[in-house]
Model the fold of this input.
Amino acid sequence: MSSRLPVIFIIITVMLDSVGVGLIMPVMPDLIRSINGATISEAAVWGGLMAFTYALTQFLFGPTIGNLSDRFGRRPVLLTSLVVMSLSYLIFALAQTIWLLVLARVLTGITGATFSTANAYMADITPPEKRAASFGLVGAAFGVGFIFGPAIGGILGEYGARAPFYAAAAVAALNAMLGLFVLPETLTPEKRRAFDFSKINPLRAILRIRNVPGVGPFVLVLFLFGVAQNVYPSVWSYFTQEQFGFSTGMVGISLAIFGLCMALVQGGLIRVVIPRFGEWRTAQIGLALNVVVLMITAMISTQVFLFVLMPVMALGVVVSPALQGLMSNATSSEHQGELQGVLASVQGLAMIFSPLIMTSLFRVFTAENAPVYLPGAPFIAASLLMVLALILLMRQPRT
Done:
């Protein structure tokens, strides 16, 4: 049992990272409005700024956190991140100004960048032939946390917009205390290396796309898809409250159901669809499906139809692995590492830009002086981005 405790600790830590992402989503509109008296339209802009801040800090600090763990060891980085995470949730719970919320989001973004350190720890304690399974376990923990996070946030949010943050702060602090007793250091001093400033530039990976011939257009397709697909986490809480009058609890439940549908597609259906249709056809069908579903989402007005549509919405995630498979198959073995670095950076950039674009559109079309009242405007924009991605994909050779 003692040998399993470090693994259990890592799983809990990764789950906390993903729970923190989902936990905030149902209560953020109410929290912002309680602080500055904003309308739901105005709150969406602040929410978009905080989502942008979170994604940007993860993107910028991911390489830095990884390098720090190589220099000082996995244990201090993981334990410090949990302590800072707990403090950031306390700031959320106690904040009386909007800029303190932004500061807290910066801190959660930095601590959320420890995902790579968790994987490094698992690699340290796992023999090479079992590492793929260990990484899969970490990925599954992240997925489970993202499913339960919105549900927990929604349920606790019924007791006040700050209640989920007190709970999250307590859990993060307790996990840090657990780590003090059960988490040994796995990186011995002789294996540590000096901190290398040349390796902490997150844009370096994107610039390396020049070294991977023939995949540029597909990378652009993936970026357009990422910006469009991130419309869901960017505006879902604001859209469902404005369009359907969802309570905080209902927002959390709907996000949890959506997350479960996506997990079923990613964990099971993809294994059937891609071998049956191939990467190219799967990407094509997935983009076309997203075009239709996003446009329907923008126009529907009944809650029942929204929940019925969720499994179909989730089918759209097949595009990303299909595109990644296309690019990987078109890339020689010596460029595979560079390709994966490029794809990770491109997906990170999509998560940075999407919240700003989508919440700004929501603000424009739900404000009192809106040219047309249309809460679903971000979904229409996402549908058009999918159209552009589909056209670009169709113009590329299949081999």
